[in-house]
From TrEMBL:
The protein's name: Blue-light-activated histidine kinase
Residue span(s) of domain PAS: 135-205
EC number: 2.7.13.3
Catalytic activity: ATP + protein L-histidine = ADP + protein N-phospho-L-histidine
Species in which this protein is naturally found: Mesorhizobium ventifaucium
Keywords tagged on the record: ATP-binding, Chromophore, Flavoprotein, FMN, Kinase, Nucleotide-binding, Phosphoprotein, Photoreceptor protein, Receptor, Repeat, Sensory transduction, Transferase, Virulence
Amino acid sequence: MSMNWQSRRSDLNPTGRLLTHLASASVLAATLIFETKASAYIGEGSSFLEFIPAIIIISYLEDRGPALAATVLMVAAGLWTRSTLHGQISGEDWARAILLLISGGVIAMTFHRLRQDVRELLEVAEARLAAVEATESRYRWAFERAAMGFANTNEKGELLQSNRRLSEMTGYEEEELAQLQLETLVHPDDRDALAQLLAGLGKDSASFASEVRLSRKNGSAFWARLTLSMSVPDGVLSETIFVVVDDISERRAVHEALRAQKEWLDLALSAGRLATWRIDLKDGIVTGSGTFWDILGLPPVGSRRLEELSAVVHPADWPKLAVSRKLAPVTNYDVEIRVRRPDGHIRWVALRGREEKYDDRLQRLGVAADLTERRQTTLLRAAAKKRERIMLEQRHRFINLFPVITALVNMVNVPENNVARYKETLIDRIRSLEATHLLLSGNSSGSGMLHDLVVQELQPYMGTRDISVSGPSVTMSGGAAESFAMIVHELATNSLKHGALGDSKGRVEVNWTFASEDAGGDIVFDWVESGRRRPSKVVRHGFGSMIIGVDGAPLVGHSPKLEMTGHGLRYSLRLSRKEIGP
């Protein structure tokens, strides 16, 4: 597109070159004629200085060579004229000739150097102009093919220039846009925002941006990010404002969808009384929703240090918040912790979520739920069911007492037709049954320990008689415990009447062991009396013998053995684990 200065001179037409040479020759001829006449009329007073203007003109019109040649010709002509007219050349003329020759050379070289400098400046200017033209071409290409709309406008808002993309966005042709103002493209409801942008432009900042609605030619509207920028060279505002239009309709639609989804999520979490939380395990920072801090009984804040939660989390549950040592990239996290709120209430809180790495940072995130009411309801239901079960067992046991009492009445004979003694014996058995029932009722499970049943019958004699009770811990169910208590009561009553409990020096040893090393096997129960034994005048097998199984099967257990001597008694009974309960 550009040519250097030398090429420009070579491109001059022949007529132009001829005219230049004729002008130079005319100046040279006129100067020589003038010098000749001046030498003739003035004489020796004339100098060679008259040639200098001609040398300057020729140096300007021609290059260095012609100018030097013209200078030499002028010097030679001047010396020849003086030699012809005066017959000789003085030393002063020679000095002037040499000075003229030097001056002409300097002038020719000066013009030559100036011409070269001008040529170089022109080449630099042309190179810069070419670069500017290339940049403008690239800018124009980018301007026309940009993915965003571009336009130039003045401070009045008149559109000066627009690109293809802006035309596609608005539906206007470029010629139509050139006849519109920027305000015309902005939706009427958003024109105040445009006015604020224009008012602040150049005062507070050289660039402003805002999201506004633009109107298309067909009347529809779309969301766009409008950016206005103004250059401020040397403190003077430019008349051109650069406008960038970015269509953000899809992004706004996605944003609105996300906002609606977030509102739905917040509503769902609120309805389910759930909260969101996240723990950055590297920095120990906890962030959560307002509901999360409300569940913990803490004022809502953006974030807290993890160790700050130790003030409200139960010490026994604090280790549940420790960092997992698993190396798996994703780990499910599900714990329940107790929280002591500032008002003193203990709340159960479930933390459910995931423990994973994100950007090389280990974190936990999930939801939190207040389980206090649910746990209280569960505990109340469990307690109610347990109480109901106990009441059913108590009622069942109470109902079973009537057949037992009826059996006692039928089993006890009237000794020697003595009604008073009959009543005494019957009441004694009923009271023993009552004591056993009260002992079992004190236990929520309705069962009793074998040790407690034995001690209950021997308790009245513990302080005055030598009694020892030993054996492993064995639990007996309600029905078996009542029957076994009656057997022990019968042994104690017999011992008081005829055996060791009736003698101040007598001794009673009661012990039981497992028949084998297997704890699930039979239990061998032994009642051993030592000391003087008072013989009974009348030997009969009555109610007591029936209970302990002398005349048949005992009330509970099997394989009973009774050995009596003048110095003691030994009674053995085997109790099956299946028979007496768990």
